[in-house]
Structures are given as structure tokens and as C-alpha cells.
Amino acid sequence: PEEYVGERFTFRVIKFEQNGRNIVVSRRALLEEERDKAAAAFLETVKPGDVMSGKVVRLAPFGAFVELASGLEGMCHISELDYARVDDPADAVNPGDEINVKILSMEHDDKGRLKLSLSRKQAMDDPWDKVAEHIKPGERMEGKVIRLAKFGAFVELIPGVDGLVHLSQMSYVKRINKPEEVVNPGDMVTVVIKEVDQENRRISLSLREAEGDPWVLAAQELTPGTKVTGTMEKRETFGLFINLRPGVTGLMPKSKFRDSAEPSALDKVAPGEEIEVIISEVNVNDRRMTLSPGDA
Known about the structure:
Helices cover 13% and strands 43% of the residues. The chain contains five helices and 17 strands. A hairpin with a 5-residue loop joins strand 6 and strand 7. By secondary structure, it is mainly beta. The strands form four sheets. A five-stranded mixed barrel has the order 3-4-5-7-6.
């Protein structure tokens, strides 16, 4: 290339023929020899488990190549770049960065070349070691949904530390069958910390508690004797289920029909129709509410 014209390099002669009229030189052969010498010297001074400094030389979709000695590189897989989830190596490191890495393994391939497996995250402080300082049961925290599973959603609370919102903890208002009915990866959500198991690296979270229990709020407004309008949800042989607030449904027993000025009218109420009722009893712990006809 033109940019190298005038510069001096060292080469190895690999072919000398016809009394010097045909000479072939190779810089690659010399570099490979230097690399082999560097690898041999490297092997004498380091071992798996050692932590050392290296320079990021290039990125690949699956990780980053880090130069530890002249001409000697190792691979840091994307899963070993950080405790936090990394989807693109460029989100964690860039070419030219000086980083500390831990040597995981040192092997030779079938051509005798040294292969190094590295970890950046294992050379860093483990964020789980300080979880008790930052994450406490009962607290509200904002986090990022990083992935979904059949049984719930994983939310990252601090870099490298995530917890699980089980399906049962997603909503007070309705039954959730799939986490994507409520959240998607990338969503920022507010959760309540329910339980922290630092030893097993598990944190239980609740979305519904962060939003508030509708029954607690309803109990403050829908006290016995209060007249309110609801929507008939379902008819059963023993009475009518009437929705009063999102997530709050009460029962008007069949035995209460006779208290109405027009009992026969209650037999004709269809699902979706509005109906006026009076709150008779409220049991927040059992999530039960007994209703009476509004014209009783």
C-alpha cells in the first residue's frame, strides 16, 4: 500500500533461488514467530485465574478480542463482558479501551495456536455482594424489564441484579396468563421488593403492590350503607356478581332480591347493564363484598 512506501520493515527470507534472482520474503512468517515467542513467554508468567490488564482491539457479534501481550489476543465472550445483560458488545466496551480481565482458560487448538478465554465481569466487583445495601424488602424501586418467561418477567433493579415478577404479582385487577399482557422487554416499571434471597441470588418483586390494592382503596370509599352504581358481570343460581371498581366485584345474594321494591326486575338484569346497589358488608382480607338492591 502507498502509505507504507519509504518505511522500513523486517522480513524473513523464505525462498532464495537462481543465485538471488528469485527471492521471496514474508513479514507474516516473522510475525507468527514473534507471536509464538510471546505466547511461550506469556505461558511462563500467567495461569488461569489470573487478572491482568489488556486492550480491546476489535469487536465481534459474540464478544470482544483483547490483546494481553504483543500479538497475543484472547476472546471475552459477550456473556462475560458485564454482570448486566449485554446485547451488543459495543454497549460494554470499545476498541482501544484498557480493561481488566480474568483468564478463564488457556488451550491450544489443533494447529498449536494458543486460545485464551477471558472474562471482564469476573474481574469486576460482583453487584450481588452489595445487594443488601441497595435493595430492601418493602421498598419501591424502578427497574427495566429485561426478559419474559412463561411464569413472569425479570426486571433489572441495578446493573447486574434482576428480580422476578411472577404472573400472580402482576395485577390485582385481572388474571394474567402471559407476562406480555402487562409488560414488554425494555419497559421501565415500578415494583415493590417482596423478598431478597442474596445467597441464592433471587429477588421476588410485585407490580400489583406498587400500583396499590384496589380492595384497600375500595374499603375506604365503599363502606356499609353506601349506595353506588355498578355493572352486572355474571349471573349465578345463588345471586349476581356486580363489578363496582376495576378489580373489585361484590355479590348480591339471591336472598337479598326480596328486599327490592321490584324483585322481578333483578331477574332480568343482563351482563353489562348498570345496576344501583347498597353496600351491606365488606371483608377486605377475604376480598368479599355483600350487596343489597339499591331500592331496598
